């Protein structure tokens, strides 16, 4: 892909992340093109359908969260790193859940596409790795599982909006206390 084509694709994905987060299923590809500053033809040259755009946006967002999770948990203090990761993921949760909710249901035997599944698996592995590091140094309760953390993050994502800063901070603090993670 040419450099300008790659740059346009990235602009479209970034715009799609914001438009889908704001408008959910009601978001249009025209809005994405306008926000990206490209033509609708550019959007469809990169993504044949709106669903392809949604999937690529979800994959990009999961990959971004995975990279952030790996970066945050690379620090010397596993407990503080895990607390910081949970704060970051709680703040990112509403966008992540909106994007994942736009994907087709995967209980029909078809499942999610391979790229979405791989991105979700990598994200989950990074989250589990951060939890295990924190547990290894006594900075998280030993009986806590990755499923527990995922459930709590999903609950926070569904319960908060994109602008509920103080309430979200308090809720994350309560979750960290319950998980035995030092703040």
Automatic annotation (TrEMBL):
Keyword Transcription regulation on entry: yes
DNA-binding region: 28-47
HTH tetR-type domain ranges (all copies): 6-65
Record-linked InterPro entries: Homeodomain-like_sf (IPR009057), HTH-type_TetR-like_transc_reg (IPR050109), HTH_TetR (IPR001647), Tet_transcr_reg_TetR-rel_C_sf (IPR036271), TetR_SbtR-like_C (IPR049445)
Matches recorded under SUPFAM superfamilies: Homeodomain-like, Tetracyclin repressor-like, C-terminal domain
Keywords for this protein: DNA-binding, Transcription, Transcription regulation
Protein name (database record): TetR/AcrR family transcriptional regulator
């Amino acid at each position: 892909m040419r450099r300008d084509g790659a740059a346009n694709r990235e602009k479209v994905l970034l715009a799609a992340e914001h438009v889908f987060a704001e408008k959910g299923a009601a978001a249009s590809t025209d809005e994405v093109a306008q926000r990206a500053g490209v033509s609708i033809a550019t959007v469809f040259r990169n993504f044949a359908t709106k669903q392809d755009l949604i999937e690529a946006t979800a994959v990009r967002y999961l990959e971004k969260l995975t990279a952030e999770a790996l970066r945050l948990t690379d620090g010397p203090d596993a407990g503080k790193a895990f607390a910081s990761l949970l704060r970051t993921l709680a703040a990112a949760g509403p966008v992540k859940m909106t994007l994942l909710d736009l994907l087709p249901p995967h209980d029909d035997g078809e499942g999610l596409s391979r790229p979405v599944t791989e991105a979700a698996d990598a994200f989950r592995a990074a989250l589990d790795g951060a939890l295990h590091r924190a547990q290894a140094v006594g900075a998280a309760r030993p009986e806590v599982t990755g499923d527990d953390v995922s459930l709590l993050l999903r609950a926070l994502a569904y319960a908060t909006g994109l602008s509920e800063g103080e309430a979200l901070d308090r809720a994350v603090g309560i979750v960290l206390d319950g998980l035995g993670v030092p703040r």
